[in-house]
Design a protein that fits this description.
This protein is mainly beta and 584 residues long. It is 11% helix and 36% strand. It contains 5 helices and 39 strands. A 4-stranded antiparallel beta sheet has the order 1-20-19-18, with no helix packed on it. Strands 2-3-4-5 form a 4-stranded antiparallel beta sheet. A 4-stranded antiparallel beta sheet has the order 6-7-8-9, with no helix packed on it. Strand 18 (260-264) and strand 19 form a beta hairpin. It is elongated. The N and C termini lie far apart (109 Å).
Length: 584
């Protein structure tokens, strides 16, 4: 029995080892990416793992050009196609290679020996316009020199470009060895003077650096004494103080061949690289991954029109040791942000003149690196068009030729109101207080304080305003009629609404009204009744002073006897303290 158990244990251990090794076995991409008679070099994978650009000689006659392939709905690579706008610039003997897509997918960097360049090879960039890559532009002289520059790689935050530099044409041994350099993005959005990376990165013979999505892990090819072949792949991590850790030999991938030109998915789980003339892929073991990452793709759009918006997104982690992520969003609105699995982020936009500030959150605590996360960010315009339609309060019939006034409550300025048939339109700013008034011939006026908020942006902004017909026993509550506490002295702000009543009575000479005042239930009943009578009379006195004949009005105080709502809250008590008029 012991022997049997021992045998079973050995078999299980063997199966585990086979399983672990199988997960790390390299796999050729095969057709249609790899061609049996041509070479494929320097693959570059997009952040969403759906586009690959690589260097190949499949155009024939010794030409090296850039091709791209995308994944179809079955997650399979489609037949590669040439990037015409870049390849057409090259002459017959020009080399175009070392492509590197930025993590946001908007810029393609590469190197080439185009005519008119600075040196043996120069670095160029091309921009994605939504349908195609633009004609290339050379990098600045802070990067391109009379030496050889190639294999650029830009960090996911867009602030650092790593590349190789050398002038091997002047070396006696003609060895294809280089040094790795880095250029930092300046405040004016240009690339700064490049600096050579120190040891232990640059030792003697380096090539093809690739900075990973965490902006700290650098994978590069190097010829070193501990290597297993010619060029092997190594990995180094940049510490908080800016120093680089001792490069680790990626033993799970290196062979006796030249293993180089690595490109790692943004999630950090798959590596694409070149060996033996073809492109291969391999799963990266966890021990080589300091962080697990997840990519969030989306679009910044206008919440109302759904049109794209150019802005800048800033993502700040709840982990103070993580650097803030700044993402530039161009006119197409598209963005791709790489977050660390397990972290939470606060997202803000840069100030925009026409939109409210955006503050959102991204919670990656339960995210998986294999997740395909999509999130649109909707910005709410600061100003929105609101429409008003006047209705008969009883019949709901739409009233023609509406008279609408909207005033800025802070500046007291009247806004421009446009009337088209039966709809009045006005542009209002979210969060700003306004005063709205409407009337139509033969109807009582309607007035309200109005402060549009962000919720209004997503509601129907066509407001239906009911007006009461001027007929016997119709009651209209006056807005913003205020008195000194416990007194019958009208406050100055009451004049705005009372003047509307003056206009109504002036325009309807036959109408007589009862002016009534009401209180809440605070205090003595008799005191409240007398106070309401005095307040009603104060309103009549105001109207009389404005030219309305006294015999057209009666003043009536009801005290607390006719509450609109129960006097059980401060808000309800405020509603019960009111002034109304009733047509007699």
């Amino acid at each position: 029995m012991n022997r049997l158990n021992s045998l079973l244990f050995s078999m299980m251990l063997l199966l585990c080892n086979i399983s672990m090794n199988f997960a790390q076995v390299r796999r050729s991409l095969g057709p249609p990416v790899n061609h049996p008679t041509f070479n494929e070099y320097a693959p570059s994978i997009s952040a969403n793992n759906k586009t690959m650009i690589f260097e190949t000689d499949r155009a024939g006659e010794g030409k090296w050009e850039l091709y791209y392939t995308t994944k179809n709905e079955k997650n399979r690579w489609t037949p590669p196609k040439p990037i015409v706008n870049i390849n057409k610039i090259g002459k017959d003997n020009d080399l175009i290679g070392g492509p590197s897509i930025t993590y946001d997918g908007k810029t393609l960097y590469f190197f080439a020996s185009f005519e008119g360049g600075q040196g043996d090879m120069d670095i160029y960039s091309s921009s994605w316009n939504g349908t195609d890559w633009s004609e290339p532009k050379p990098a600045s002289t802070n990067i391109n020199t009379k030496a050889y520059e190639g294999f650029p790689s830009v960090s996911s935050d867009g602030k650092s470009m790593y590349f190789i530099r050398d002038n091997f044409s002047k070396r006696k041994d003609k060895a294809l060895c280089y040094t790795i350099w880095v250029s930092k993005k300046q405040d004016d959005d240009t690339w700064g003077v490049a600096e050579k990376l120190p040891a232990p990165i640059n030792v003697d013979c380096e090539k093809a650096p690739r900075i990973m999505a965490d902006n700290r892990t650098l994978i590069f090819s190097s010829v070193r004494k501990e290597g297993v072949g010619g060029f092997d792949l190594y990995q180094s991590f940049q510490e908080d103080d800016g120093s680089w850790s001792t490069p680790i030999n990626l033993e799970y991938i290196n062979t006796e061949e030249d293993d180089q030109f690595a490109s790692v998915s943004a999630a950090g789980d798959l590596m694409y690289y070149h060996t033996a003339g073809d492109i291969y892929t391999v799963t990266i073991p966890d021990k080589y991954r300091k962080y697990k990452l997840v990519t969030v793709d989306g679009k910044v759009i206008d919440a109302i029109t759904k049109q794209p918006i150019a802005t800048k997104l800033t993502s700040k982690s709840s982990n103070v040791k993580e650097r803030a992520i700044n993402t530039v969003v161009d006119a197409n609105g598209l963005f791709s942000i790489i977050y660390r699995v397990g972290s939470k982020y606060d997202i803000t936009t840069s100030p925009l003149a026409d939109y409210l500030p955006y503050r959102g959150k991204m919670d990656m605590t339960t995210a998986k690196e294999t997740d395909n996360i999509e999130k649109n960010i909707e910005l709410i315009p600061k100003k929105l068009v609101f429409q008003f339609q006047l209705l008969d309060k009883d019949t709901k019939a739409i009233l023609k030729d509406p008279k609408v006034k909207v005033m800025d409550a802070e500046t007291k300025q009247l806004l421009e109101v446009k009337v088209d048939k039966d709809i009045a339109s006005v542009t209002l700013e979210i969060g700003k207080p306004y005063k709205f008034a409407a009337n139509a011939l033969g109807y009582a006026f309607f007035s309200r304080a109005f402060k549009p908020d962000t919720v209004d942006a997503f509601r129907d902004r066509l407001k239906k305003v009911p007006l009461a017909v001027l007929k016997k026993d119709v009651v209209v509550q006056l807005q913003d009629i205020t008195f000194e506490t416990g007194k019958a002295d009208l406050k100055p702000e009451s004049g705005e609404e009372l003047d509307r009543l003056v206009t109504l009575l002036d325009g309807n000479k036959t109408i007589k009204v009862e002016i009534s005042a009401h209180t809440d239930d605070v205090g003595n009943d008799d005191t409240n009744l007398k106070l309401s009578e005095k307040r009603a009379k104060a309103v009549v006195d105001y109207l009389t002073a404005k030219g309305i004949k006294a015999d057209r009005m009666t003043a009536k105080g009801y005290g607390e006897t006719q509450p609109l709502v129960p006097n059980d809250t401060d808000e309800n008590k405020a509603k019960n303290r009111r002034v109304q008029f009733k047509i007699n």
